[in-house]
Design goal:
Layout: H1 12-21, E1 43-46, E2 52-54, H2 55-60, E3 75-77, H3 107-139
Antiparallel strand pairs: 1-2, 1-3
């Protein structure tokens, strides 16, 4: 070996990535997804390195992972979700009286609401006087659009 040549170093991450890319069982070298319907050939994976196996091949290997450097001895079926701990809420966790949010109007909100109230009062007043005037004009028959 010459001085300029470097050794190839294979890390644990390289092995894990290669195992994740493989869809073949490391024991029998056949495709794992082909036998998904069969019970003993069901696809499983090692919890440690996530290498795919057939269930029968895993059991044939003594219930442990066959990948060099992996010490996994537990598996999970493909498609089975591990949701972890589930949140439980007891009745005592809920407060008896939920606090009401305090909404304090700012200056702009107060001005807008007062302006709206003032416009509503003017509309009511204007409608009353307009209705009164129209009624008087109709009563004395001076209404301009009245044909009679």
């Amino acid at each position: 070996m010459s001085e300029n040549e470097e050794f190839i170093r294979i890390t644990e991450e390289d092995i894990a990535e290669a195992n994740q890319l493989s869809l073949r069982c490391p024991m029998c070298a056949s495709s794992v997804e082909r036998h998904a319907a069969n019970g003993e050939m069901a696809p499983i994976y090692c919890i440690e390195c996530e290498t795919l196996y057939h269930l029968a091949c895993w059991e044939q290997n003594g219930g442990k992972c066959a990948v060099l450097g992996c010490s996994g001895n537990a598996y999970r079926r493909v498609g089975e979700l591990d949701l972890g701990p589930v949140l439980t809420i007891e009745r005592s966790d809920i407060p008896r009286h939920a606090p009401q949010p305090r909404v304090t109007p700012n200056g702009r909100t107060k001005r807008l609401k007062e302006s709206e109230r003032r416009m509503q009062r003017e509309m009511k007043r204007r409608t009353f006087w307009r209705d009164l005037w129209e009624g008087l004009l109709r009563a004395i028959k001076i209404w301009p659009s009245d044909p009679s």
